[in-house]
């Protein structure tokens, strides 16, 4: 073959590959944003990290965007103002049902599940001197700190306590502030929804004797029946106070995508995030749970077709057709 013929052949192959790449990327946006939460929190660090990773790997412009968190992210992704976002199962369920306080009555069904992120456990702490060693021990009218107003903890933990028959006075504040109030006797209990170990609890157990209260099997089952939470175990090595693993529940966090995004685009994004967990853990250690086998933790949202395809092909996911958008 002459040199000119060889060059023509190489050019033809390159042209064909380019055309195929262009076809694969049909409808892809040139840039994207990921709705996260406030700076300094896990959502912002985690979300900005995977946004930058995806942008770099796919040759696009993209990044994390500061938002009001899970509820606002559902709204932003549903309307298409953000291509991607992050949410917890509770806010996702409320948004789909039309009870998102940002837009009451609007059923946000155009936000689809994309991939599992990590869990937010629910845990209860009291001073040992209070004599409160179980949920049943919490006296009627107890002052319970539920975290910052409007947080996941403040939204769901009071409802969980009511479900378990606890009568209480509600208190709000930052976790460190609530820890101080507990130690000073201004609160009876703190109910946390936060990654463990919770710094405020770790600080408390250094300064005083505390009880980290687990749910009974019956209480755990009751909460799981009533709320979009999963079974969770707080390991005995999490706190020096714990002598054995503690039974709890957790709410899963999921990345979400606007349901109208191209299937090939979302499939490629999921592939970048889910194919190399070590890279994700380097972004944030919470990503240790960002693994393919956790696809089944979504019981609330319909899957984006591109994401569903990835998990079915790479994780053996058995996703029913009626749980896939457009299916």
Walk me through the structure:
Strand 5, helix 5 and strand 6 (168-171) form a beta-alpha-beta unit. The protein is an alpha/beta fold and 327 residues long. Strands 1, 2, 3, 4, 5, 6, 7, 8, 9 and 10 form a ten-stranded mixed β-sheet that branches. Helix 6 packs parallel to helix 7 and helix 9 (263-274) crosses helix 11. The protein contains eleven helices and ten strands. The protein folds into two domains: 30-118 and 253-323, D-Maltodextrin-Binding Protein, domain 2; 120-251, 3-Layer(aba) Sandwich (D-Maltodextrin-Binding Protein, domain 2).
Order of helices and strands: HEHEHEHEEHEHEHEHEEHHH
> What can be said about the biggest beta sheet?
10 strands, mixed
Rg calculated over all Cα atoms: 23 Å
Question: What is the helical fraction, as a range of percent?
Answer: 25-40%
For the record, give the distance between the C-alpha atoms at the N and C termini, rounded to a whole number.
51 Å
Which structural category do the helix and sheet elements fall into? alpha/beta
- The 3D shape can be described as elongated
Per CATH, the class of the largest domain reads Alpha Beta
How many beta-strand segments? 10
Overall pLDDT metric: 90
When the domains are counted, the total is: 2
The CATH topology of the largest domain is D-Maltodextrin-Binding Protein, domain 2
By DSSP (H or I, 4+ residues per run), the number of helices equals 11
């Amino acid at each position: 073959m002459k040199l000119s013929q060889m060059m023509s052949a190489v050019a033809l192959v390159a042209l064909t590959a380019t055309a195929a790449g262009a076809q694969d990327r049909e409808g892809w946006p040139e840039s994207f944003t990921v709705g996260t939460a406030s700076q300094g929190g896990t959502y912002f660090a985690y979300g900005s990290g995977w946004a930058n990773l995806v942008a770099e790997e796919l040759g696009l412009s993209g990044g994390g965007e500061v938002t009001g968190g899970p509820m606002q992210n559902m709204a932003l992704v549903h309307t298409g103002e953000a291509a991607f976002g992050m949410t917890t199962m509770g806010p996702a369920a409320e948004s789909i049902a039309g009870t998102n306080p940002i837009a009451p009555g609007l059923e946000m069904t155009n936000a689809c599940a994309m991939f599992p992120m990590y869990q937010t456990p629910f845990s209860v702490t009291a001073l040992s001197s209070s004599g409160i060693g179980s949920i049943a021990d919490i006296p009627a009218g107890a002052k319970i700190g539920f975290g910052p107003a409007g947080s996941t903890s403040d939204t769901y933990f009071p409802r969980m306590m009511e479900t378990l028959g606890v009568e209480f006075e509600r208190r709000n504040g930052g976790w460190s502030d609530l820890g101080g109030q507990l130690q000073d006797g201004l609160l009876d209990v703190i109910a946390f929804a936060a990654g463990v170990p919770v710094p405020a609890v770790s600080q408390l157990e250094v300064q005083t004797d505390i009880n980290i209260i687990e749910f009974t099997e019956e209480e755990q089952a009751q909460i799981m029946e009533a709320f979009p939470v999963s079974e969770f175990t707080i390991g005995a090595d999490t706190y020096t106070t714990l002598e054995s693993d503690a039974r709890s529940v957790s709410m899963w966090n999921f990345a979400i995508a606007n349901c109208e995004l191209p299937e090939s685009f979302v499939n490629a994004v999921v592939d970048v995030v889910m194919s190399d967990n070590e890279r994700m853990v380097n972004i944030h250690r919470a990503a240790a749970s960002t693994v393919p086998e956790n696809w089944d933790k979504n019981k609330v949202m319909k899957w984006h077709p591109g994401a569903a395809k990835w998990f079915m092909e790479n994780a053996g996911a058995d996703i029913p057709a009626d749980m896939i958008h457009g299916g």
